[in-house]
Amino acid sequence: MRIVEVTSKPQKMAKLTALSQFLSGRIADMDAHEGISVDAFLGLAHSIGISVARNDLYELMKSPPLDNIIKEIENNIIVFTGQIVEPDEQLSVDQSRKIVDKMAKRASDL
Asked: Where are the domains positioned within the chain?
């Protein structure tokens, strides 16, 4: 292990945290339903001088402060805490009708 690896870990974590907070804010501002791909995230990290491997990212996101910012990595997409993720499945016609019928019944009971 090199001395640079030991001394630069807090600085690397601070930069990764700042990048994650920035991206989380941008996604929230744009009302995006998808996060950012792991490859794009790593590319951004490398472009600002943060050298992190994919496997290291999975480990780092489990520890503070990244565990409060990155919710999970699903299908190679980073999902941030508080981000609304749309389900892949759509309601069937029958499910939609049942929901509309319940809403109509509630409205008529008023």
From this structure: 3-84
